[in-house]
Each structure stands twice: as structure tokens, then as C-alpha cells.
Amino acid sequence: MTHRRVSLRGGLLAKASSGGTHHAKIFLAAGAAASASLAREFTVARALGTPHFAAIAFTYSACCAAHSGPIFHMVSYAIDCGVPAMAAATVFGTAGVASLSGRVIGGLAADRIGAKHMIVFGLALQAFSVSLYVFTRDLASFYGLALMFGFSYGAVMPLYAILVREYFGARIMGTMFGAVNMASTLGMAIGPWAGGWLYDSYGSYFWLYIGSFGIGLGAVAIAVNLRPPRDLSLGLPSPSVTQSA
After folding, report:
1. Among 21, 69, 107, 207, which one has the highest count of C-beta atoms within 10 angstroms of its own C-beta?
2. Please, where are the H alpha helices in the chain?
3. Contact predicate 41/173, CB 8 Å
4. Model pTM?
């Protein structure tokens, strides 16, 4: 009887020890995650000086420059191709409706595959869609392309805020997204102006779509080469170093 009690007590102590070790591992993992989160905390000045900010800003700006020209000149290009003015206006509306669906579906996809991967996919689809305008002439083709093009630029636009949050943290997200959004506004302004200038110079929208396609590919290239957010902590001092200083 005494031997059985000793064995039972030993088994309970072993389980307690195992459980304590398991909880300790969870605690250490949580502490490591917290330390990594603290290590990624940026000041605005430091975040603005990182290559990651420049990459996101250039991607967003190039994205907007690539689609703003085709969007603003969509109706006039369709009219140039012989589409009636009222029908050309409905093509523009079709692209707008498609962009709404892109925002919803793009967000759902980003929750599954990540914002960066969805942005890369959307930018590639946007560049491909812009290139197809060179071959588009009839109303049915304009409607089909409006659905694809509208979906592509709608899918990526809300995701830049998520990207900024993932790279720079929530504490300065508002300031950083404002800075990134300012860069995108420059892209939105350049596209329509450049498209009008090219049309006035060459009497055709051909070079608008070729240029937008090239800029779109540039945005894809920058987005593909964005390093994962965890790499940012390598360039920052650890919390222990900061405290000891």
C-alpha cells in the first residue's frame, strides 16, 4: 500500500512538472512575441527613413499612376472607338461597380493569403488589363475589360493600409498611411495629365496604355521585392539594449 502511494505521488509530481514546463514554454513564447513587437516599434522619423516606407510609397504611387489615366480617359477613348457617348458612360459605371466587388473580394482574399500577396496579384492583373485596351474596339469588349480592370484596381486600394500596419505598427499607422497616401495622390494626378498630353501630342491613346502598362509592371516589381515585416526588427535596437542605455 505504501509503495502504491509513493508511485501515485511520483506520477502526480511528474505531471505537474510537465504541465509547468508547458506553461513556461507558452510564457516564454509570448514574451518573445512581445519583444519582437516592441522591437518593431518605430518613431515617425525613423519609419520615414526606412527603405520599406519608400518601397510602399512608390508602389502605391505607381499603382495609382497606372490606373488613373485609363480611368479618366476611359469614356473619351471609347467614344474615339465609335461607341455612343451614353454607352461609353455606362462602361465607366461598370468599372466602378466592379471596383466595389474587388474591394470586398480582395479583402477576403487578403485575410487568407496576406495583404502583400493580394496586392501583387491585383497589380499584375491591373497591368494586364491596361495592356488590353490597346486591342479593345467594340462595346462588348469595353464592358468585359471594364469588369476586369475595375476589379483589379478596386482589390488593391484598401490593402495598403493593412500593409502599413503590418510594417510599422498601429501606434504610428495614421501618420505613416497619410504619408503613403500623399505619394499615391501624386500618382493619381500624373496619370490623367500625362494621358491628355500624349493624346494631344500623338492623336491617340496608344502611348497612354503602353506607358500605364509599364508603370504597372514597375509597381509589381517593387511589391514583389518587399521584405517580410519581421526583417525590420533587425535594424532596430532590442528593448534590453534600449533600457540599458
Report:
1. 69
2. 2-39, 44-48, 51-72, 74-80, 85-113, 115-132, 139-156, 159-168, 173-202, 206-224, 239-244
3. no
4. 0.76
